[in-house]
């Protein structure tokens, strides 16, 4: 019998909201308001003396097609001892969904603006999927604010291949109708990003809730189309610049946690990070997929807690 979950799951209509019991916060950007979670000691309006680890800040950066809901269990597990900040990119999650085209460079600008506005320091970057490139881009812009890096299945370099499952989503008509009309990318992600588990109905509902209409799925489509396939694409150069900067972060403690069954950010992506960061602490989960925090939630929480609160 599998162990009981660390955070019991509620049931009933809109039950996903019970899995995400965080107060909303808003940050004004030029294109709209960014929603973010800010929990734990040291957050705005709290006393830094609430806990001995009040100087620890965890910055959770999500990818596509997720939102800060992806980090709910890690935030619940760590918010009693560290400040947990988890933004939703514009167009994603509970943030505004403007009819504006964003690229990777814009996402980095937005995250840097939030980090500066909150004056985050002693930051441990926790990122996955597109969040890796976005978060690392921010860390390279504000290196003095970052203390550690922990990445789950991500990339921060120009891709040498695009999986067929994603390539079909980039076709001019079929892709847009599939992603924005039928929400196929988000729905497929619920099945194709895990290996050893199935998500419960309430968790699936939580992932899908913000992407409930054509207009609200624009960012999902944009993220897919922002994957560069040649140096002519504007995001290619941004990824090249981030990769060139990776060695400058090698002096930080770095932990890489990989689901080895990921068909998107494959083990080859982990190997590429290790070329830049040979000293990094790598943890490989043989039976986990792209959403390793869903395939192995208890193990991921333990690895993060040890990394931040009980460093060697």
UniProtKB/TrEMBL annotation:
Gene Ontology terms, MF aspect: haloalkane dehalogenase activity
Gene name tied to this protein: dhaA
Domain AB hydrolase-1: 57-297
UniProtKB keywords: Hydrolase
Documented EC number(s): 3.8.1.5
Source taxon at top rank: Bacteria
Top enzyme class: hydrolase
InterPro entries: AB_hydrolase_1, AB_hydrolase_fold, Carboxylesterase_BioH, Epox_hydrolase-like
UniProt name for this protein: Haloalkane dehalogenase
UniProt KW Metal-binding keyword: no
Pfam family, one: Abhydrolase_1
Source organism of the structure: Pseudobythopirellula maris
Cytoplasm in keyword set: no
